[in-house]
Amino acid sequence: MKKTTFLKKCTLATCFFLFVFQINFSQNNNGTIDAMGDIAIIAMNKIVTPSQSDYAFVLLDDCLAGTKIFFDDDDWTGAAFSSPTGEGVSEWTNNTGKTLGAGTVIQVNFANNNGTTGIANIGQVNEIDSGFNLAAGDQLYAYIGAKRAPTVFLAFWGETSAINGTETAVLTGTKLSNGGSDLTDGITARVTSSLGFYNGSTDCNGTLVNCATMINNAASITTGTFTWPTGVKTAFKGSALPNKFFGTTNTNWATASNWGYETVPIASDHIRIPNVTNKPIISSSTGAVANNLTIDASSSLTVNSGGSIIIDGSATVNGEFIYKVSVADTNWHLISSPVVNEQYDDTWNDANGINTSGAGNNEAVATYINTSDADGDWVYYQNNAGATTFGSGTGYSMKRTGAGDYTFAGTFPPYPVNKNISANDIGGANENRWTLIGNPSPAHINIATFLSVNATPLTNTHENVYVWNATTSAYVPLATGQIHPGQGFFVNSNALSTSVTFTKVMQSDQNGVTFYKSSNPKITLSLNDGKNTKNTEINYLEGKTTGLDPRFDVGTFTGQSTSFNIYTHLLSDSEGIDFMKQALPNNNYHNMVVPIGVNANAGKEITFSIDADNFATNMKVFLEDRETNTFTRLDEANSNYKITLANAQNGIGRFYLHTTESSLSIDKNESLENVSVYKLNNTTLRITGLNQEKAEVSIFNILGKQVLKTSFTSNGVKDFALLNLSKGVYLVKIQWDSGKLNKKIVLE
């Protein structure tokens, strides 16, 4: 059989490059200083008055507590040092009681020939053999072993030609009996007759070979004596020298002393989690960041609920990445997996306290489908159904038997994450545009950015994310703030099939949720039936209109039916959509009358009340009941409007909210802005906002032919059947005692 090798097709230059790097660099990145190239000398200096010698080196591998490195300024002859007692030896010891991370720079300064402890920025240094006296044309060998008895040469800086005319320092034989190659100029050694310091980059990216070669490059030196330690590098970073978590103090990610750099990682840092006893935990109040992240085999990284981690580059998980989503009760919650490749089955459900006492074989992990009817259905995991992988960006409804954590273990999601959303039976009786999705990442998602990126696939009347508040048992729309890791939410699709996108730019380590600024006038209208309270908001904002303002006018959640609710309709160009939040201009209050919709069963006693914020002191708020012909002021302390419903309420037409800065004048003449005409569906026309008075409606086709004419007495809402009309454009004309209105509609 013909044998081929990688080197067969390389050029002479690249083959030589590979040979040199593979043979001459024995650094093994094994977490201890024990191989050639595990350090690099980055400065050597001599000051005459007062007499002192200085040197600095960078760790290219981790340095365990107790490690000793010897620095010898004698000349190596190829088999031994030439003057066993005539030159000096400096001994540096890691006496910090902890591991020093690769990239750490040690700077040493002490007086010559004093035989006492010198000064080091980290660790301890002693002149253990007098005569340590650096000079131009001198040499400095670094090794481990014992004084003048090296077992491994680590690095070199200095001259290798004749010294003082007789002695010659060489690199030959520095491999000792360890195999491989000797110290090599430009890789593990710097051959120069000059004192000076390394003046190049401190970004060590790629491999350690690349890093060592960069540091020992002949051109990257400022030569001559200098004021110590001016110009000497203080630390090296990069993908070849990642910031490692040693857990020296505890398991807290945010504790600086746990890290090899002695600093908590920043966004540009490359991170590595080795297999240590104290494995890192990101707390609920910590927003962690990193460039690239590697989790070694048998190691792990855990993020507690509310915490986050943003990876700007890539993540490699050889061990475990864990995110815990905490709940404080036994209620249903919308949850998503913050990791990729986690699965749920009976084992996962048991470990995570999933409620298994549902009907039949139902267990309390459910997905939402919108293809059944207008309010959708939940599909529950079945006992013994086998393993199912959590979808990235998919939302689930879950319920525990007690307070605790949902634990997800897997890898980081690849970006961007595209999540399909859909709508069913658009324009039909079973129209359902809701899809349950969720935050796919272990970082918070900025809601405003998510909505901006996904404005096209989302319906403009429901351009918010809808989260479930388990405490109030209500869906809450949000346009600003943050979606927490593990949070599921509903969105409203603008098409039968489309998708939303999660991008890295959406990620945030910020907490908190806001909506409108508190300085703006706002009315929160509440409806209570003795057991439940529902709210609708009206916000008065500069630049907003009486028509649709996407993201500020927010439709109600219709993905599940409710028999009790309160909402508003738009004042202009209403299409019959129920809004749980509405934005209006912050002027002309008197002329803006807001239609209030109510869903409540017959016989219910309901109570209206308001919370009005940031209005002028002379602003008054009235609730009009057109069935009882009453106006009730609600802005006064402890005021409300209570009524028992003789008939079920299911829409607008009876109740209206008035705001005025003067006494309310009750006028039967309707403002055109308060009357709405819209297509409820393709077979029904609805007219709202008229008082109890006679009116006439006429409908004309595009050719001007009248196709419908009828008179009616309004009670706030009037519906007309359009069963015999074909598809097309029609003009609707309405006339009543005090006005008239024309509106174009399209039947599809």
Automatic annotation (TrEMBL):
Domain of life: Bacteria
Record keywords: Signal
InterPro entries associated with the record: Secre_tail (IPR026444)
Cleaved signal peptide residues: 1-26
Coiled coil regions in record: none
Domain Secretion system C-terminal sorting: from-to ranges: 684-746
Keyword Signal annotated: yes
NCBIfam families, sorted: Por_Secre_tail
Name of protein: Secretion system C-terminal sorting domain-containing protein
